[in-house]
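REQUEST FORM: STRUCTURE PREDICTION
Request ID: SP-0412
Submitted by: Lab K.M.
Chain count: 1
Length (residues): 163
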Amino acid sequence: MLPIELPSRQAGDTIAVVANGVDRPYPMGNRELLERVADLGLMVSEVPPGAVPTRHRFIARARLMAALSTATVVVEAGARSGSMKVAERAQELGRMVGAVPGPVTSATSAGPHRLLRDKDCAVITDAADLYHALDTRDVEHGSSASLLMPERIVSSAREARQL
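STATUS: Completed
RESULT:
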């Protein structure tokens, strides 16, 4: 498990897309983190409370993750990982996909390298690369970044639950 910290209010909100019911923390080792997300951010699931995670639900979750994002950046991923499924779904939805190249000797670089080789994918080595890729995509598609922003920003998890 990697240590993850929730962003401050100025940095944005945290959304967790889970493959199980929002009332069942999975994996249990992340229980405290998931409870913080539920309190301060937003938990999203397509399945009812009490549902357990299954392989099929993890695969289906990739569609939601791609749909909720303007861009998907794969940092590390095996060639057949869930991150690669999210990238595939993002491309199907016309979203920007980027990949961070890594050592050719690392199995976790296989996914990003495959994206860079086989797909219409931006090379991302820092935040400037991501901003540039998004700006370039916006120009090519005749839109602007402001059009990608929602008309109404939800200011808290509590407000999101009320919508």
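NOTES: Residues 6-10, 144-163 have pLDDT under 50 and may be disordered.
Reviewed by: T.R.
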